[in-house]
Amino acid sequence: MKIRSIELTEINLPLVHFFETSFGRTHERRIILVRVEDADGAEGWGEVTCGESPGYSDEWTDSAWVTIEKILAPMVVSKDVENASAVWDLMRWARGHRMAKSGIETACWDLEAKKRGVPLWRHLGGVHQTIECGVSIGIQDSVEQLMDKIRVEVGAGYKRIKIKISPRWDFDVIKAVRKEFGDILLMGDANSAYTLADIDKLRSLDEFNLMMLEQPLGYDDIVDHAKLQAEIKTPICLDEPIKSPDDARKAIELKSGKIINLKNGRVGGHTQSKLIEQTCREAGIPVWCGGMLESGIGRAHNIAISTLAGYTMPGDVSASKRYWHEDIIEPAVEVSSEGTITAPDGAGIGFEVRRDRIEQASVRRSKIN
After folding, report:
1. Known catalytic membership, residue 164
2. What residues make up the domain containing 261?
C-alpha cells in the first residue's frame, strides 16, 4: 500500500438536540474527515473523533488539524507499507495524538478493504455481523425531560440506556429512572466527575443494580479506580485512561475495573483496538464500543470494529437520526426494532459517502501530497 495523498475536510454539523456531559453542553460538532487516495485512485474515508475543545481528551479539532497537516500526513504519504495495519507504525515517532492518527489509519483500512472487495468488518476479523446497540443520553434540563428521552429510546428497542451523571445529577435521578422503567439495562457515565472523597455516594448507587459505572474518577487514573472497585459492588468501566494494549494490561492487573469502553479514536484506530480487544478477551474482560458524536463515517467504522468477538456488550452505536437531521452517508445508519444494527455487506465501510452533503457542511480543506 502506498498513499498518494491525504485530504482533510472540516465539516460543521448541528446536533438534533444538545448533548451535555460533565464537560459542558454541545450544540454543533466540528468534525475532521480524512480521505486517503492511493496511486490507483482508490480512496478510503476516516474521521477524527476529538471534540471541539480539550475536555474529554487533550486533543481538539484545531490541534488535530495542524497535527495531521504538518506532522502525521507527511509521515504516511508516499511511504510503502505492507498493509493497513502497518500504517500505525509509520506515525509511531509522534507521541500521543491518537485521535488524529486514527483518522488516517481507519481511512487506510477502508481503502484496503475496498481494494480487496470485502466488507471492512470482515477484513478486521469480525465474527458477528449483527451488533446490539445502546444509547447515551446527556444531562437534561429536568428529570421529566430525561424520562421523555428514555421513553423514546426504550420504545425504539435499544438494548441499553446510558445516562450521563455528575455530583449534581446522580442518586435521585437514577432512583427516578429505576422507579419509572424498572429493570432496564442501565448504566451511569460520570466522565471523571468524582473523587475518592465521594466513595460513600458512589457506594450508594449499588442499590440500583447498574450494569456499570463508567469512569467515575480521574481521566488518567487506574490506581484510585482499583481502590474504588474494591469498595463498591457496581462494576467500574474504564474509558479515558485506556489508550493502548499496555494500559489495558496494567488496569486488568490492578483490578481497576471489570469492563472497558473501547473507543476507536481514543486508542488510535483499528489496529490498536484489535490488540486491546484481544488483551481484554484473553483476560475475560468484556469491551464495548463507545461513541464520540461521530458522523456517519465514524459511525460506520464503529459498527465494523464492534463485530469483533470481544465486543460482548451493547455499544454507543446508534441511529444517525438521533444526532443528525441529515447524515453524510447513504443509507443513514438505522437500528432495528430489536435494538440491533447489521454491518453492511458492501466493500469497505459499506456506506456511500455523500459528497454533496459534505460540500454543504464544509468550512475548510487541505490536501497533503
Report:
1. yes
2. 122-342
Q: From the candidates 114, 162, 263, 274, which is the catalytic residue?
A: 263
Q: Is 215 exposed, middle or buried (0-12, 13-18, 19+ CB in 10 A)?
A: buried
Here the CATH number for the domain that contains residue 37 is 3.30.390.10
Nine-digit cell at 119?
466488507
Q: DSSP of 104-134, one letter per residue?
A: HHHHHHHHHHHHHTSBHHHHTT---SEEEBE
Question: Is residue 15, in this structure, part of any structural domain at all?
Answer: yes
pLDDT tens profile 49-64: 999 999 899 999 999 9
Catalytic annotation, pick one of 162, 164, 243, 274 = 164
Is the Cβ–Cβ distance between 264 and 271 less than 8 Å? no
What does pTM read for this prediction? 0.95
* Residue 119 to residue 239: CA distance in whole angstroms: 28
Is 149 a catalytic site residue? no
Q: What is the pLDDT of residues 307-338, one digit of tens each?
A: 999 999 999 999 999 999 999 999 999 999 99
Same domain, 314 and 358: no
